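Worked example 3 (structure in, sequence out).
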């Protein structure tokens, strides 16, 4: 929590970097708040390129925890995590990164359907002692 609290103010100057930090710190509630705020930003080619690169990184070993947490469909963090990933998907133009992330999210939804678990719908699910609770989204 202290590392996240220390890094957050330094990384918040770049929206995609801040979002990445939230994913790494498992602050999925903050990540979801950030992705909602992305609609207020000017969507430039550079911004889209950063999101594209982030999606590529999501497929790397550093984010294996995130991909595995997508399978934990009944966990309280699942809804904000899934919404964060879908938010990224909605920002991307049709591209390889879009298809990669879309395939990943389709697999998660198929798993939920195959297990017969109804989706948990919540706009915000606070987690106890969660590093994301330290900072409001600016």
């Amino acid at each position: 929590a202290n590392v996240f609290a220390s890094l957050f103010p330094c990384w918040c100057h770049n929206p995609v970097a801040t979002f990445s930090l939230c994913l790494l710190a498992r602050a999925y509630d903050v990540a979801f708040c950030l992705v909602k705020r992305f609609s207020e930003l000017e969507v430039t080619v550079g911004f889209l390129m950063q999101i594209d690169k982030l999606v590529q990184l999501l497929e790397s070993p550093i984010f294996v925890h995130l991909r595995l947490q997508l399978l934990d469909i009944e966990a309280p963090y699942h809804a904000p995590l899934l919404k964060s990933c879908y938010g990224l998907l909605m920002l991307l133009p049709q591209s390889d990164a879009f298809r990669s992330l879309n395939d990943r999210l389709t697999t998660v939804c198929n798993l939920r359907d195959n297990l017969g678990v109804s989706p948990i719908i919540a706009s915000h699910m606070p987690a106890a002692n969660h590093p994301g609770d330290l900072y409001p989204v600016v």
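Notes: Residues 122-138 have pLDDT under 50 and may be disordered. DSSP finds seven helices and no strands in the chain.
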